[in-house]
Amino acid sequence: METRLAAILRATGTGTWEWTIATGHLQLDDEWLAVLGYGPGDLDTTLDGLFSLVHPDDQPRMRRRLQAHLDGLTPECECVGRLRRRDGTYQWRRERCVVVERGPGNTPRRIVGLGTNITDLGQAGERAHPWEHVFDQTQFGLSVTSVADDTFIAVNNAYARMHGYAVEELLGRHLSVTCELPADALSDLIRRINETGHVVGEYPHRRKDGTTFPTLHEIAVVRDAQGTPVSRVGFVIDVSARDAAVAALRQSEERFRAVYRNAPMGIAIGDIDGQFQEANPVLCSMLGYAEDELRTRLFRDLIHPDDYDPERRRVNQVLASGMPSELFEMRLVHRSGAVVWAQIGLSVIRGATPASTHLLALVEDITARRAAEGAMRQREAELRTALEAADAGTFAFDMATGAIHFSARCRELYGFAPDEVITADKVTTCTHPDDRRLVADRFDATVRTGADYDAEYRVVAPGRMPRWMHARGRAIRDGSGAVTQVVGVKLDVTEQKLTFSRIEASEERFRLVARATRDVLWDWNVLTGDHWWSPNAVELFGYDPNAEPDIDAWRSRLHPDDRSRVEALLLGAFASSVETWDGEYRFRLADGTYGEFLDRGHVVRDAAGEAVRMIGAMTDVTELKRAHRSLMAAHERLQAASRDVHLTESRERAALARELHDEFGQLLTAAKLSASSLRAMPLDGLPAERRQQHDEKAASLCDVLDMALHGVRNVATQLRPPALDQLGLARALEGLAAQIERHAGLTCTISIDKATRARVFGPVEGAAIYRIVQELVNNVARHAAATTVRVDLTTADGHVHLVVTDDGRGMPPDEARPAGTLGLKGLRERAELLGGRVAIHSRPGAGTTVHVTIPAGDGA
What we know:
The chain is an alpha+beta fold. The strands form six sheets. Strands 2-1-5-4-3 form a five-stranded antiparallel beta sheet, sandwiched between helices. A five-stranded antiparallel beta sheet has the order 7-6-10-9-8. Strands 12-11-15-14-13 form a five-stranded antiparallel beta sheet, with helices on both faces. The model is unreliable at 122-137, 243-251 and 815-820 (pLDDT under 50).
């Protein structure tokens, strides 16, 4: 493989090299040396030794390109130049390299490179390639600036001459050296370029001698393969001399090729008939063609049919009028047939003859932008709909013309006719006299400072009662920062104002209630710490909390075990957007004992949503808590007793089931055998009529005994399923599922996890779970009109979880279910007897899910 690669490199005149920056050592492989006629040991293996071979005219440019890559400003370095052969002649070479190792602070450590002999291409380019001629005549100045520090990485000769500098004088300097914009405006422009990736506009520039001149400047961000911005490319035209010949712009093939290759927009060069001569990769990708394919086509072949005639007229106008460029939008057709919206900057590069005149097109894909504009129009329509739904009106005031636009809702609020011309005087006339100064001051402040407009005032429409209006607006600025429009919304807040009045009346009632209630009412200003307690606090607490300096006295009286929890609840309520807070805690009274209180509060927030006040009431629940604890203890004793009763009942039912099965079952079985024997006895000596009567009575007796035996077994099974004792809960449930499928025609699936199968259930626990499942699946079979039912039994988090799900008709909500429907009351009682709970989720037509949770006992 290595031999084949070496042969390929020799055949293509290509060699490799590696530079270790720390040691300065430059390693050139044999192929690289051989192409230039050198052998091992013939050259100084340092970077300076390599550059000693570079033609003097090419050295500055190649060093700048290499340094820009070392500084991390370009993703790779590609240089085209002439290197001296051993025989003294020069060979055109393309050297491409990339930093493959960097140290701390992004310091380059090692570079690898690849050199190719392009002498034939270089000589042909000198003779026939149009690029040099094109950019000798182009009317654009070209600059490349760093996105890291806004300094010039490269400028072409035309740009430098335009500003009165040499190229070397601008390299490395901040772009403000040629831009006349104030510092804040320049910073804003750079920010917009970085955000949008592309800006076109007219900006003042400054020459070296201090004179200024206007320019048309197009700036675009160049990104590497990973999409990271690495530099900005600027195209500049001195528009102060549009009617004169623009100074010829000269750009080397290598530098233009770098711009051409890395530009974020499509670039094409063609003749005056529109025949493609060059197309960069971006344009090829944009249109879906290879460059060779485009060279066989005319530009008009790719234009949407509806845009062809306007485009032809533009080209003819540019060619005939001597205009430097034309910027327009049109539709192109992708190879796939898709439409591509493009913004095209068309320039004429005029030669000495028509044959040497070229068209330069800068093509930007604006399909996404056009789609975004369409989406924006859609969002504007949706916003209008939302404003109409919110009963809000919109307004816009044009500072230049004084024109005022009111939406239909705004016109209705002010009493203006749909076609009435609205003036500032009319709006002022409809504003309540007492509020006019407020409205004028707020509006003037918005125009003067650009601050948001916000005002509440009354509107008096002709023949109507005054209405309260809340207007909010925002200033729209132009490129210079001047306010050109104020736009916003107006809301009728009359009802809110009335509500506020009712709230004030409610607060008065609150003060009256505070005098009569047994609860301790309180009011806490969160910002200042001020607090107020109702007078009955003294009686309940044994001291006057109003005498305390701040709310910290209340905190200090919280029980130590409750303090951090209560404070966390308070802080959580403040940090969230909730309006209510409640908590239970113990509170130290004046005699040193602790009372138990239920505290509820309402959080009052300012316009920004910050908590500024809390109002609430403390309810003494000490006696209630004591009674509750006593009741819970009694309940626990009752549950324990119930479990004992249930255990006893289960044992008695099991014993009774065994007796029925063993004793009565055996007796009935013996009786059936006797009856069968009697039936089989020979009756040859009896008349035929007597024999028939005997057979009929014997058969009837056997049937009765069969029915009795079956009934005894059913009763025994109902009292205590034998499968529970013989096979365990899991197998008993599986047997129950099989029985349901046989008798009800219902698909019944039982799923029991490994932990539950291994668990040993006590007689009470196992019987209760079995009965619950039995009751639920029987209810499904009888009432749900279901086709499938699934039973899941799992153990997790110290609980046994039973979930029964069917696909039947469902049930109405809890409040609509009659008590005891489908045996659910008994089901809940069985679960509660074991300390469990039942949750039912059902909707009509969507099936039912019953979730029973029972604490996992010790199996006793």
